[in-house]
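User: I'm designing a mutation panel for N-acetyltransferase domain-containing protein and want to avoid disrupting the core. Could you give me a predicted structure to guide residue selection? Please restate the sequence first so the numbering is unambiguous.

Assistant: Good idea. Sequence first, for numbering, then the predicted structure tokens:
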Amino acid sequence: MGAGREPSISLDGVRDKNVMQLKKLNTALFPIRYNDKYYSDAISSGDFTKLAYYNDICVGSIACRLEKKEGGGIRVYIMTLGVLAPYRGLGIGTKLLNHVIDLCFKQNISEMYLHVQTNNEDAINFYKKFGFEITDTIKNYYTNINPPDCFVLTKYTSQSQVQK
């Protein structure tokens, strides 16, 4: 029997011409409707926001915002990371997150963080595999979903702050 073609996972930047794909993914993936500022932040983050394609089908994305830290420097806020349910477990989310982690190392960005709903154990466990730690709990962070509370998960990427 002939060898089947390996499925390919590729990443592409988000630009004005393809931002609709990010909007469609977010509608399918998240219980929140994102405003125009979210999409302008995503586009302006450059390489930190990517669409993921599985055999040329858009199935996931990571959208980040670059923030100035007090005292100088930049940190990355992961606004969203999601993969459509039929494509989970194929390494797509891992590829998206590793892309952003690698960019942080290359650009000497020492901190990245995100919010996760407190009952989203799959997401919490996923991020912990990459060295994220729960650093805060925010009550009533979300307005229209239950539970309304979230955890802040943070990863420090500078060598001096990496915790073993």
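For picking mutation sites, this is relevant: The beta strands are 9-13, 50-54, 57-68, 74-83, 111-117, 133-138, 150-156. The helical segments are 19-29, 36-44, 92-106, 121-128.
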